[in-house]
Design a protein that fits this description.
This protein is an alpha/beta fold and 238 residues long. It is built from eight helices and eleven strands.
């Protein structure tokens, strides 16, 4: 079963959280709430939302500063909401990376429809993949999460996944994979590579990511564009 899409709501108004909580749960979304800029960035870092709904007039540093940080770090899809945005404000928000901007008070059916549109166009194919604590002494990641679930991988399985994740959406040839993992002995390891990919696929499938690894017949493998390494700073905004 596919996990519920996660929507992070960053807004200073408790009434907005109550309204969006009811609306989005009706849309089968998991809603995460934050009231401040720093709380929003922290929640984004920890839960990796599929969509962020962000108040433009957020107290403190303001919604635009949060938007720029989110966009620069991962390009999260962000739907801005505002009670008094001018045309210039809307242009700035869209130029800074927002997908859309909705004026308050908004119609519940309208914003639910806009959320559905963003989730259809923005959610990665197959799964969300996060690789953490990359080991500089080798190609494998220390921790791998798929759809928020920690994956238990062998060193070779982790190495395959890490190499593919460096260039999601692109073909990595069998020869390149074998050379990276086994070095000078890699040319004789095609059968072993296929065994590790098969095992890796089974583990991904158990987390709802059956189609994350794509195959080019007899050439190599690729990772769907839903795969990415993430890092989101949580230091105070200036």
């Amino acid at each position: 079963m596919n996990p519920l899409p996660k929507v992070l709501v960053v807004d200073s108004d408790p009434a907005i959280h109550r309204l969006l909580g009811i609306l989005l749960e009706g849309e089968h979304c998991r809603v995460i709430s934050a009231r401040t800029a720093q709380e929003g960035l922290s929640r984004a870092s920890s839960v990796s939302p599929d969509l962020v709904i962000l108040e433009l007039e957020l107290p403190g540093c303001g919604g635009l500063a949060v938007l720029r940080t989110l966009y620069e770090c991962r390009r999260y899809p962000v739907l801005m909401v505002s009670s008094r945005a001018s045309v210039d404000d809307k242009v700035k928000a869209l130029d800074a990376g927002a997908c859309d901007l909705v004026m308050k008070p908004f119609n519940g059916a309208e914003i639910a429809a806009r959320v559905r549109v963003q989730l259809r166009t923005s959610r990665p194919r197959g799964a969300t993949l996060v690789l953490c604590g990359l080991d500089s002494s080798g190609p494998s990641a220390r921790q791998v999460f798929v759809n928020g679930i920690k994956l238990e991988l062998t060193a070779k399985e982790g190495a395959v996944l890490q190499i593919l994740a460096i260039q999601p959406g692109e073909l990595v040839t069998n020869q390149s994979l074998m050379q990276s993992i086994w070095g000078s002995q890699g040319a004789a390891q095609l059968h072993e590579l296929r065994v590790y990919v098969t095992r890796l696929r089974r583990k991904l499938e158990a987390c709802g990511a059956a189609n994350l690894i794509e195959t080019e017949f007899n050439l190599g493998y690729g990772l769907s564009t839903g795969a990415r390494r993430e890092h989101l700073p949580t230091t105070p905004l200036s």
